[in-house]
Amino acid sequence: MTKNGLILEGGGMRALFTAGILDVMMEEGVTFDGMVGVSAGATFGCNFKSRQPGRSLRYNLRFIGDSRYMGWRTLLKDGNLVSAEFSYHIMPTQLDVFDAETFAANPMEFYIVCTDVFTGKPVYKLLDKADYNGMEWLRASASMPIVSTPVQVDGRTLLDGGIADSIPLRFLQEKGYGRNIVILTQPKGFKKKRTKLMPAFHLFTRRYPAIVRAMSRRHIMYNEQLDYLEQQEREGNILLIYPPEPLPIGRTEQNEKKMRHIYALGREMGVRRLEEIKAFLTEAKNENK
């Protein structure tokens, strides 16, 4: 049986582009057998499983400039640019409620990717509950090094999944997903360069040399994954969706005009590619007959 999957890379606020596409698909009743999200692809993508269109943009706009949510004041207070307690446990349970019941009832498999700080290797978690523990896994997937403290969950010490596996297509294929849609937050032709922040990684993450090593070669890993995407696209195994141009927003930038613009670009792309998306998924269903 050919299963269809959805792969969402991260990118911080660039992932509002992804959120726009996901909202269009939700509104149009598009579903998948499974999905995997990395970093912001996980924290925004979880709303696809809980069937809550508009939520990713809504809470990010609502809490612009709120030091309880995200900012340098938060970083200085508890070592996390994005607040651990408010963003992952107070806001989703009290202020912009995450539908944990629908999330759990949705049969779609939802995997997230984190990075083990001691090995530098990816850790994949099947997330079927959005309880406190599940939210800690989501927090771990999006905990960027230098501006986040490692997350302790289920006996592991974890950071951002994009460090070790930025575009986990191979992972989902190994799980039996033969037809996949991949949403990127960088335009076609993008190639990652070695980060200029290596001196900072050596300084701030020296307790975790595996993370330093992983970051030093992350551009190599990422570009190899892009090459694999191109191959899989040529073979007809994936449908690749990416922004038409570099998205003009920083990873943690809280600018309402830019955030609305990035989200609108995603919705526009979702509408433009909707029939192609439906046709691709229909082909997958037909292969199972």
Average pLDDT metric:
96
- SSE order in H/E notation? EHEHHHHHEEHEEHEHHHEH
Largest sheet: 8 strands, mixed
Alpha carbon gap, first and last residue: 9 Å
User: Per the principal axes of the C-alpha atoms, what is the gross shape?
Assistant: globular
Radius of gyration: 18 Å
Proportion of strand residues: 5-15%
User: Which structural category do the helix and sheet elements fall into?
Assistant: alpha/beta
State the helical fraction: 40-55%
- Based on DSSP secondary structure assignment, what is the total number of beta strands? 8
Number of H- or I-type helical stretches: 12
Provide the low-confidence segments as ranges.
Answer: none
Q: Topology, please?
A:
Blueprint: E1 3-8, H1 16-27, E2 34-38, H2 40-49, H3 55-62, H4 72-78, H5 84-95, H6 100-105, E3 109-116, E4 122-126, H7 132-141, E5 151-153, E6 156-160, H8 169-174, E7 177-183, H9 198-204, H10 209-216, H11 218-234, E8 238-241, H12 256-287
Parallel strand pairs: 1-2, 1-7, 2-3, 7-8
Antiparallel strand pairs: 3-4, 3-6, 5-6
Helix pairs in contact: 1-2, 1-12
